[in-house]
Every structure is written in structure tokens, then in C-alpha cells.
Specification:
The chain is of the alpha+beta class. It has 2 domains: 147 residues, no CATH class; 71 residues, no CATH class. Helices cover 33% and strands 13% of the residues. It is built from 9 helices and 6 strands; from the N terminus they run αββααβαβββααααα. It has a 4-stranded antiparallel β-sheet with strand order 1-2-6-3, with helices on both faces. A two-stranded antiparallel sheet has the order 4-5. The structure holds cobalamin and iron/sulfur cluster (2 copies).
Length: 230
């Protein structure tokens, strides 16, 4: 019997890790993706990510969380992505490998109905800003449904208050740019304790998908990782 490389088989393989299949897209020559082993062309790229804090207990229970080595979440993602790539006869691509980085946000827009938000993070019609990508799987067979973004799901276009652009105590989100150094300086100061403990205040000000907001523990983990590298 051949290997089952269907979307359903992939979903089943991701579920025990709390990871979600975030749609897929058919790459073109312009994507420049190298052929798979034995010269098989890539016919689908499946996007794999997290929604809310659903994956957190799985990651926390893994050996990576407490081993004291750097980048535990990236190493957890790599272990799962590479095991699945081998099992499904494809290649895993990671958002953190770079620079140059794979254009995960542009890929996301081709795989699901995500759109750039005023915070530049991708806005998902149901998950809001509370989602991210852990890896993509390039496979030699499979067929994704095309992503169809709809103007009716463009939350930012209908958000007249835009509280995300006012909530940052140091104005790091301007609506056109993210002022990395301004944010990092604040986080390294005593005044940044609230962001460090509860997560980015600007992101939390977004009223979309409140039920999917990251848990305090999960949000603080990302803030610590961000501060370590900036
Ligand atoms: C480098 C990087 C950063 C850098 C610099 C970002 C920059 N603008 O140059 C810094 C340190 C600032 C950063 C910060 C954060 N990042 Co970041 N970052 C990345 C990373 C690793 C590479 C981005 C890149 O250069 N891609 C290459 C280009 C060619 O790909 P791209 O798809 O075209 O992406 C660019 C465009 O989409 C553009 N863009 C995004 N929105 C819009 C909107 C418009 C209108 C336009 C014109 C362009 C534009 O910005 C992207 C980066 O340049 C990506 C992962 C990845 N591989 O994409 C994560 C990623 C973008 N980051 C992510 C996150 C969550 C964050 C943080 C919230 C921190 C965190 N980990 O919690 C902050 C928020 C800051 C912010 N507003 O983006 C997520 C976003 C998830 C989402 N929902 O969209 C990603 C996809 C990582 C992931 N694993 O999911 N990040
Ligand atoms: S607060 Fe409003 S403008 Fe800002 S990201 Fe959320 S929906 Fe978009
Ligand atoms: S983490 Fe804090 S300082 Fe940085 S952008 Fe968010 S609200 Fe502003």
C-alpha cells in the first residue's frame, strides 16, 4: 500500500502536536522551490502553524521546553517538520531559516484568507492576530483549495478606532512601520514590565477574536525570546 499523503493524513499527523494545517498553495516557477529528492517537482506547499495557545501544552510537555538550550520553539518545530517531511516524502521549510527568509506571510495569503493588518502581522478572518507559522511542507502530490480573501473579512478596513495604533506606550506601531528599536528599548527598561509579563499591549488591544488571545504564559515566552535577540 502507498503512503497516504492526503490533506486529511497530514491533519491527523499534526493533531497530536496541537498544530494546525493552515491551507496550502500551488507554487509556480517564480517561487524558485528546489525539486524534491529524485527530481520530483513540488506540487503543493502546505502551511503549518498555531492558532491561539492550542499548541502550548504540547510544546511545554516536550523535551525541548526545559532542556536549557537556545530557541526551544524553533527546535521543536524543526523536529516535527523534518519528521513529517520524511514521512510524507517531501521537504520542510522553516520561517526562521534565514536571512534570506522564506516569504511566509505572502505564502499565508495564498493558502488562507489572511490579509496584512495595520500591525503588519497577518490578520485572519476568524483567528485575528492570534496565529503564527511553524513550518511549511513542500510535497510532490496533493491539492489545496485556493484561498479567497473577502473584503467582508478585512477587519482593519472596518475598524475605525484602530486601538492597536494607540495602545503601545512608546508608539512603536505607526500603521506604516514597526519601530523595532523603540519597542526593544522599552522592553529592556523597567517601564516595559507590563509588556514583558502580559504580552504586546498593541496586539492585545485588537478587538478581533478575543477568545483566541495567547495565554499569559505563552505571550510572556515570546516576549522573553524577542528581548533576548534584540
Ligand atoms: C525578520 C522578522 C521580523 C523582524 C523584522 C520584520 C520586518 N518587517 O522586516 C522583527 C524582529 C521586527 C519581527 C518582529 C515580529 N515578528 Co516577525 N518575522 C520575521 C521573519 C523571520 C522574516 C520576515 C521576512 O523578512 N520575510 C521575507 C519576506 C520576503 O517575506 P514576506 O512574506 O514578503 O514578508 C514581508 C512582507 O509580508 C512584509 N509585510 C507584512 N505585512 C505587510 C503589509 C504591507 C501593506 C506591506 C507592503 C508589506 C507587509 O513584512 C514581511 C517582512 O519584511 C518572519 C518569518 C518569515 N519567514 O516570514 C517573522 C514573522 C513575520 N513575525 C511574526 C511575529 C509574530 C512577530 C512578532 C509579533 C514577534 C513575535 N515573535 O511574537 C513581532 C511583531 C513585529 C511586526 N509588526 O512584524 C510572525 C507573523 C505571524 C502573523 N500572524 O503574521 C512571522 C510570520 C513568524 C511566524 N513564525 O509566524 N519579525
Ligand atoms: S485593532 Fe483594528 S486596525 Fe488594529 S489590527 Fe485590530 S482590527 Fe486591525
Ligand atoms: S511590546 Fe510593548 S513596546 Fe513593543 S510594540 Fe508592543 S506595546 Fe509597544
Amino acid at each position: 500500500m502507498g503512503i497516504d499523503r492526503s490533506k486529511e493524513a497530514l491533519q491527523t499527523a499534526l493533531a497530536p502536536h496541537g498544530l494546525s494545517l493552515r491551507g496550502g498553495f500551488v507554487p509556480t516557477a517564480a517561487d524558485g522551490l528546489a525539486a524534491l529528492p529524485e527530481g520530483r517537482p513540488v506540487v503543493v506547499v502546505w502551511m503549518v502553524g498555531v492558532i491561539g495557545s492550542g499548541f502550548w501544552p504540547h510544546f511545554k510537555a516536550s523535551s525541548f521546553f526545559n532542556d536549557g538550550l537556545p530557541d526551544p520553539l524553533d527546535r521543536w518545530s524543526r523536529a516535527i517538520g523534518e519528521e513529517l517531511a520524511e514521512r510524507f516524502g517531501g521537504r520542510a521549510l522553516f520561517p526562521f531559516d534565514g536571512p534570506p527568509y522564506h516569504p511566509f506571510q505572502r505564502w499565508a495569503d495564498r493558502a488562507e484568507a489572511t490579509q496584512p493588518s495595520r500591525m503588519m502581522l497577518r490578520m485572519h478572518p476568524e483567528h485575528g492576530l492570534w496565529h503564527a507559522y511553524r513550518f511549511a511542507l513542500a510535497l510532490a502530490d496533493g491539492q489545496p483549495n485556493p484561498a479567497v480573501p473577502s473584503p467582508s473579512t478585512d477587519h482593519c478596513a472596518r475598524c475605525s478606532d484602530q486601538p492597536c495604533l494607540r495602545a503601545c506606550p512608546v508608539g512603536a506601531y505607526t500603521g506604516k512601520a514597526f519601530l523595532l528599536e523603540t519597542c526593544a528599548r522599552h522592553l529592556h527598561s523597567d517601564a516595559g514590565t507590563e509588556c514583558m509579563q502580559s504580552g504586546c499591549l498593541a496586539r492585545q488591544a485588537c478587538p478581533v477574536a478575543p477568545g483566541k488571545r495567547y495565554s499569559q504564559e505563552h505571550a510572556a515566552f515570546h516576549m522573553r525570546a524577542f528581548v533576548r535577540s534584540h
